[in-house]
Amino acid sequence: SEVVRSPAMLAVSLTLSGSAYTLPSRARAPRMDAAVAKDAAFGASHTSFYTDAVAKDSYETLGEVLEAKCADPELRSVLGTMFDGCGTITEALRKELVTVAEKQESVFGDVQLGVDVLADDLMWDICKTEPLIKEGASEEEPEVREMHADGKFCVCWDPLDGSSIVDNNWAVGTILGIWGAETGILGATGRDQKASLVALYGPRTTVFVTLDDGVYEFTLGVGGADGWLCSRERVRISPQSRIFSPANLRTARHELPGYGELIDYWLDERYTLRFCGGLVPDICQQFSKGQGVLTNPPGGDTAPAKLRLAFECAPFSLLVEAAGGKSSDAVTGGSVLDVPIEGIDQRTSIAIGSADEVDRFNALVLPSVRAGPIPYVDGQPTTHGLNAGKAPAPRPPQDGRRSPIFLAEPSGTENGKAPPASQQRGGWGDQNVY
After folding, report:
1. Three-class SS string for the chain?
2. By CB count within 10 A, which of 85, 333, 377, 391 is most buried?
3. pTM, whole model, 2 decimals?
4. pLDDT at 94 over 80
5. Are 280 and 171 in contact (CB under 8 A)?
6. Which contiguous run of DSSP H or E holds residue 136?
7. Is residue 302 very low, low, confident or very high in pLDDT (cuts 50, 70, 90)?
8. Rounded to an integer, what distance in angstroms lies between the CA atom of residue 354 and that of residue 362?
9. SS3 state at 159
């Protein structure tokens, strides 16, 4: 029988500027006859979307791709620095416990975790090492700060998106946009970005970045080697999709009847729901699957959109549109890239992904948005869908008694009581994860 050698037993050579990296050889599993595979398929295999990526003999390094696909040498340098930052954050996340930060300094009132602060500090430190970066701003410090007066670029980032799910050990990420110093960040639009980049920290660390001719994916540490390899070239998002990711979903039964109609359409047409509540993995799946749509409409005062324009929606919209997808500001139906950035903490709604699905969102949901969201009053009947006209199920009592409809303690409760207001994100039972 064939002996399978560990990658560690094989010599590897990988540098940012060196030749393409050749993968270690591995024994391949025998192929299953197509007819047998089809007959054996059941359950999730009929609704899942598995990768179609085929292993190549060699992969180009980050340095090689940047040299060929990024004509501006100064932008190449800044992008290399940003990749270094994402690699450093990767290592930090592998070693840190997820706990509440000792100092709570978020100007938004969000609960800050130790890993949030750590990732932000690492980004500031690495940006200060790059003389080409003139100004920076972040979610944790949402004011534009000058670092190098003669710099050519301005960077705005979310150091660790996904704070509400990182304690689950789910995938989280870093999102950043790069603007030229001639426009800066404030007063510019997402379309003024020179490039945008999103890192996804999961079982592997991958980065999606806009280059001169499209979107590329890079993977860190393949085969145990140092550095980044180009794992996908010219990523494309199909106009059609069979995958949907609905954020601010509670508005579909109360505030926005049109959103309920859209959700019903996706369910009736038997689309596949893929949604974890982390903006980075929920959108990055569009690049790996080649399809998908994420929606987060504005629900008015009772369910507002929470995403930030400068360091979340604008960078992602540049990536998705560069890959052939589409974005909508979920109010006018226009591209998110055309919305002026008036503040680092500016909020926006969004629909983003496969173009046909974003068009469908605009057609079905925007009339409800323009008519004005219907304010939700606790206990009011559902306005749309299968439960239209029915009162919602009762919530558990808040005085410590057990409700007969709860057979186990609801998540985040103790003896049937809701957690203190300081520990809640929105109202108790709030599923508005973004």
Report:
1. CCCCCCHHHCCCCCCCCCCCEECCCCCCCCCCCHHHHHHHCCHHHHCCCCCCCCCCCEECEHHHHHHHHCCCHHHHHHHHHHHHHHHHHHHHHHHCCCCECCCCCCCCCCCCEHHHHHHHHHHHHHHHCCCCEEEEEECCCCCCEECCCCCCEEEEEEEEECCCCHHHCCCEEEEEEEEECCCCCCCCCHHHEEEEEEEEECCCEEEEEEECCEEEEEEECHHHCCCEEEEECCCCCCCCCCEEEECCHHHHHCCCHHHHHHHHHHHHCCCEECCCCCHHHHHHHHHHHCCCEEEECCCHHHCCCCEEHHHHHHHHHHHHHHCCCEEECCCCCCCHHHCCCCCCCCEECEEEECHHHHHHHHHHHHHHHHHCCCCCCCCCCCCCCCCCCCCCCCCCCCCCCCCCCCCCCCCCCECCECCCHHHCCCCCCCCCCC
2. 85
3. 0.81
4. yes
5. yes
6. strand 133-138
7. confident
8. 13
9. strand
Lowest-confidence region among 109-123, 240-254, 352-366, 377-391? 377-391
CA-angle at 200, arms to 319 and 277, nearest 5°: 90
Give the pLDDT confidence score for residue 114 in this predicted structure. 77
Query: 237, exposed or middle or buried, with CB in 10 Å at 0-12, 13-18, 19+?
Result: buried
| Distance in angstroms (rounded) separating the CA atoms of residues 16 and 399 | 61
Contact 336, 307 (CB under 8 A): no
Cα separation, 79 vs 216, in Å, equals: 13
pLDDT at 52: 76
